[in-house]
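hi! just following up on the protien thing from before. the input was this:
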Amino acid sequence: MACVVPKNISPEKSDVLRLLGAELVFHGTDPVEAETFAADMAKKQGKVFISPYNDPRIIGGQATVGIEILGN
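and the predicted 3d structure came back as:
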């Protein structure tokens, strides 16, 4: 799995992503640049791009976390 991240990502974050099996691709210096590049890269490679925060499935999953923690 390729994970596009800004060039100035913290070493701790990049270490954890690598431990989880991500192949890191560094681009830009902020999340918007990295996300735009990732979307273009996925389109060119015929792959699916999933935004880490701006995708209905991600938003839905994040919305249920509180309910899951409360056990409702």
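The CA atoms of residues 49 and 55 lie 10 Å apart.
The beta strands are 2-5, 23-26.
cheers
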